[in-house]
Automatic annotation (TrEMBL):
One of its GO terms (biological process) is phosphoenolpyruvate-dependent sugar phosphotransferase system. It is found in: Cytoplasm. Keywords: Cytoplasm, Kinase, Phosphotransferase system, Sugar transport, Transferase, Transport. PROSITE patterns: PTS_EIIB_TYPE_4 (PS51101). This is PTS EIIB type-4 domain-containing protein. It comes from bioreactor metagenome. GO terms for cellular component: cytoplasm. The lineage of its organism: unclassified sequences, metagenomes, ecological metagenomes. One of its GO terms (molecular function) is kinase activity. InterPro entries: PTS_IIB_sorbose-sp, PTS_IIB_sorbose-sp_sf. Residues 1-112 form the PTS EIIB type-4 domain. It holds the Pfam family PTSIIB_sorb.
Length: 112
């Protein structure tokens, strides 16, 4: 992961507990942060700890037990989908986009 980071940027791999103070400090500065997580529940845990998240870009999520395709390269469980819907209901912009040049799809247009 660290080798893929552009020069001038830094990377930290943290637990939710360790990420909260780092992200709180980032919110108080001009510093921008990108948070990469494996599951929506991790984002919900950060939000529950007071971290402000304005938008979520869901990228490629592979197949697995209980997962259903909601887009070509995105499979989610019902709980993951419901977690995203719950965050969207709180005003967080959630969309699915695999690559920057690819067309995005709004969560509201998808069904589980």
């Amino acid at each position: 992961m660290k080798m893929a980071v552009p020069s001038g940027c830094s990377v930290q791999i943290l637990t939710v507990a360790d990420a909260v103070p780092v992200l709180q400090a980032s919110e108080k500065s001009d510093e921008k942060a990108i948070v990469l997580v494996k599951a929506p529940i991790t984002l919900r845990a950060l939000i529950d700890q007071g971290i402000v998240i304005k938008e979520i870009n869901v990228g490629n999520v592979g197949a697995g037990p209980g997962r259903k395709a909601v887009m070509r390269s995105t499979q989610l469980t019902k709980d993951e989908f419901d977690t995203l819907v719950g965050m969207s209901a709180k005003g967080i912009h959630i969309y699915f986009q695999m690559l920057p040049e690819a067309k995005s799809m709004e969560l509201e247009k998808l069904k589980f």
